[in-house]
Amino acid sequence: MRYTGAEPAVAEMARLALPRLPEMTTATFEQIIADMPVYREERFVSHRELRASCRDNLHFLLRSLAEPGTPDLSKARATGRERALLGAPLPELLKAFRIGFTEVWQRFVELTTPSQDVAALVSATTAIWNLMDDYIEELTTSYRETMAEISRTRQNRRLALVEALFTGGTATESTLWEIARMLDLPLDGTFVVIAAETPGLGRESLPLIEVRLRRNNHASAWRLTPDLQIGVVSLRDPEPVLALLREDPRGRVGVSPVFTGLGETARALHLARVALSSLAPGTKDVAQFTESPLAGLVASDPHASAQLASQVLRPILELPDSESEALLLTLRAWFDGGGSTKLTAERMFCHPNTVRHRLKRITDVLDRSLSDPADIAELGTALRALAMFGEGTRRAVSG
């Protein structure tokens, strides 16, 4: 603190200025209104409140200069907190106070008599500016502490709302509306959910993703968990978002199908996790869940789906890795090719006879027919489950 009390001559000037407080208040108020649109337009305080604030702060300044000792700056701290809570910008706030301090200095100049030397005015000037520095320092500190507190409160509330959105358990229609408003997301828009594997505890796999999406006019909300960075993104077309995600993936990234309405976010997160798990561990790629009735059914119960895949495909999964992989790739290609040996061979870049041999080996090992509709349905479902929940399936086989 720089101000510890004024010299007797300065204190005398302050006492002489006190009766002029009403006209000083009016002059300060009018100057602020003339120079500062934020106060002229009553964006944060009314003209009546501003005039009262001018009077109180000018009275504090004159009383502090007139009385001995260090002044009580609690008023400065209270004002800083009040204005921060109102959202008033700090530069405008400080400018208004400087106008008030300047008004006091000008009155002191007027009160300087010919008998008083220049030294008295210099002392008064020094006292005023030292007091102003202390006052503004206290006000600024209080303002910034309050803004930090507001920011923490908002961030904590935002995190709680995002958590409610992703868990879905406590999200009613009214809370969904509040979540949408707080997160600046449309309630009934179209969205995708993204689940990105983190490179380490507390480290983002998609740094600055919210800013990058905003630049492309996509609103989003994100949460960081120990193993995932998850977000919901408002969009019309998923392709620009997928292209952005593919620019520099730092791990596995799963994307849900496009869905409508924030109330479906929790289910979409599950599907994004499924898409992520379909990528091999250690890879750096982006996969989007392809929505279909079968895919949705398989994804709805990961444990049961993994058990199904284990039961149906166990004989192949228990073969040596090289043979097991070759047979599974052939079976997938056969399904993708609509059961055509020719198309399967083209997809796998091998001779049709090789495909026939592998398909015969598959039917022998599994004791199933590729011409029986029931067997085909089970095999197709098991392959889908293996693609989604490969790790769980292999654990079931090894267990």
> Which structural class fits the helix and strand makeup?
alpha+beta
Query: How widely separated are the two ends?
Result: 72 Å
CATH class of the largest domain, named Mainly Alpha
Q: Give the overall average pLDDT.
A: 86
Q: What is the N-to-C succession of helices and strands?
A: HHHHHHHHEHEEHEEHEHHHHHHH
Can you tell me the CATH topology of the largest domain?
Answer: Globin-like
Catalogue the unreliable spans. Answer: none
User: So, CATH architecture of the largest domain?
Assistant: Orthogonal Bundle
- Helicity range: 55-70%
Structural domains: how many:
3
Number of helices: 18
Question: Please, what is the CATH homologous superfamily of the largest domain?
Answer: Globins
The biggest beta sheet, please? 6 strands, mixed
Shape: rod-shaped
Rg on CA atoms, Å: 36 Å
Our estimate of the beta-strand percent is 5-15%
